[in-house]
Amino acid sequence: MTVSETTRRALKDFGLTEYEIKAYISLVEAGPLPASQLSTSAGIPYSKIYEILGNLERKGWVEIEQGRPSKYFAKPPSTALEFSRVRIENTLKSSQTDAMSELQPLYEKKEVQERPDIWIVRGQNNILDRIKETLGRTRRELLVAMPVVPESVISVAAPLLSLMNNHGIKVSIMVPSLTSKDTIRKLKGLAEVRVREQMFGGGLISDSNEIIILLGEEPEKGLTLAISSEHAGLVKFGKIYFEFLWENSKPV
C-alpha cells in the first residue's frame, strides 16, 4: 500500500516526524511487529527504533503487546487522530493562557497603538478591481448600499452576483427610490433589494470581515475614491449602520 503525500503531510500536521510516520504506516499495513522487524520493514535505523516507538506510544499512536519479544501495534487511525487533536488543542489553549497572562498586561501598559489595514483606492478601474476581488472572496453574506448605481458597477458585479446566488450566498442590496425600474429589475434577479428615500454614502460589506466605502462618484469620471479595510471596528460600525438603514427601507 502506498500512502499519498497528502496523508503524510497531514500526519506531520499532527506532530509526527518522518520516522514516526514510516513506523506507524508499517504497523497499519503489517499488523503487530517486534521492534527489530519493524526497523527493517519501515527502513528505520535500529539504533533509533525504540526512541521512535516510545514517542508514538506517548503521542497515542501505538500500543505494546508484552511478550518475548514484545510487539507493537498501531491504534486505529480514528482513535489516534482524535487523541492527537485533543492533545494539540489542550497544549495550544495552555500556551495561549500562559502567553496572554504575560503579554497582554505589557501591551496595555505600553499602550501599543493598533495599526489597522486600511487602503485608499483611487480611480474607477482600481475601485472596480477591488470590488471584484471582494465579491470573489465572499462566502456567506454580502451587504451593498449604493446611493448612485453606476452601470460600470452593475456590469462588473452582475456575473459574480449571479454566481454567488447559485452558491446560496445571501446578498442584500439597498438603492435610492429614484433608481430606474430597469436597474432594479436587474438587481432583483440577483439579490434581495430594498429602496429608501435618502442615502448618504455607499459601499459594501463582505462576510462581516471586509468593507469598501465609496466616497466619490462623478457623472463624468465615475467612481473616483474609495476606502477598503479589514479593520474589525470599522467593519462592525458599517454593518450596524447598514442594518439600521435596511430596517427602515422598503422591499421591492
Description:
With 252 residues, the protein is of the alpha+beta class. It folds into two domains: 1-113, Orthogonal Bundle (Arc Repressor Mutant, subunit A), CATH 1.10.10.10; 118-251, Endonuclease Chain A (Endonuclease, Chain A, 2-Layer Sandwich), CATH 3.30.870.10. It has helices at residues 5-13, 18-30, 35-42, 46-58, 77-110, 124-137, 151-166, 181-188, 232-247, and strands spanning 33-34, 62-65, 71-74, 118-122, 141-145, 170-176, 192-196, 202-206, 210-218, 222-229, 250-251. An eight-stranded mixed beta sheet has the order 4-10-9-8-5-6-7-11, sandwiched between helices. Strands 1-3-2 form a three-stranded antiparallel beta sheet. A hairpin with a 3-residue loop joins strand 9 and strand 10. Helix 2 (18-30) crosses helix 3 (35-42), helix 2 crosses helix 4 and helix 3 crosses helix 4 (46-58). The protein starts with a helix and ends with a strand.
